[in-house]
Amino acid sequence: MLIGVSSYPGTNIDEIDHILTECGVRRPRIEGERLAKSTKRLPDILSIVQKANPDGSWRGIVIVPHVFEDSLFDNDRISEWLQQEEYQNPELLAVEVPKPITRMSNGFQKLFRSGDDCQQDWKRIRPIATLMSSDNKKLMEVDSEQKPVPNSIGYRYSWIKMSEPSIESLRQAFLDHESRIILPEDVLADTHPAERVRQAMIRSISIKNVAFLAD
Fold first, then answer.
1. What distance, in Å, lies between the first and last C-alpha atoms of the chain?
2. pTM of the model
3. Closest-CA residue to 106 (of 79, 130, 73, 82)
4. Cα–Cα distance between 72 and 66 in angstroms, integer?
5. In Å, how far from its chain's centre is CA 118?
6. What is the pLDDT of residues 96-126, one digit of tens each?
7. Cα(170)–Cα(175) distance, integer angstroms
8. Where are the domains of the chain?
C-alpha cells in the first residue's frame, strides 16, 4: 500500500527525510528507477507521521493514494483497494480518489458516505475525506481538447477551504470535508467555488409582540 505524507509549509527537507527513515523507507531512496518501500503497517505510519510537535501542532498528515487502476471504483471490489481494518482506522482522515464520489459505483458511494446503507462491516465512525490530485510528474501538458493529460499539473485537483495552508488546516478540512472540500466534475468546465456557491443572506428581521423589545 502506498502512503502519502504531507508536512506543513516551510518544513526543512531534512525533517521530511527523517520521517521517511522512521517510516522504514531504506536508503538509497531510489535504486535504479524503483522507489524504496516501507514494510510498516498503516497504524505504525500514522503514529509516526501524525504525532504532535512540541508546540502541539501535528508533525504531518497521512493520505492514502488511490490505486493505479481507476476502473476499480467503477465496481464494488472494495476489498481490492484497502483492507477493512485499515479503512476503518479512525486516525486515517483522508484518501485519494481518481474522480468524485458521484461518478463511482453504488457500492463505493455507500462506502464513502458511511450512511445507514453502508456495509456494516466497513462502516466508519466518521465518513472519510476524499481528495483528487495530480502526480505532477510533468509541467502543464494538454490534449486536443485542451484538457491536462495524466501526470500533468491540473489533471486532477481539489478545492480545499482553509484560512491558511497548514497541517492543522488540512486536518480541520478533512474532519469537515462535506463543507470544506469540493472535487471538480470536469476540469474544463470547472469554476472557482466562490463563483458558484451562493451563501444565504438575511436582509431583514421583524420582531413583534415581545415583552422586552418594541416591534
1. 65
2. 0.78
3. 73
4. 10
5. 20
6. 998 899 988 888 899 899 888 888 888 998 9
7. 9
8. 4-188
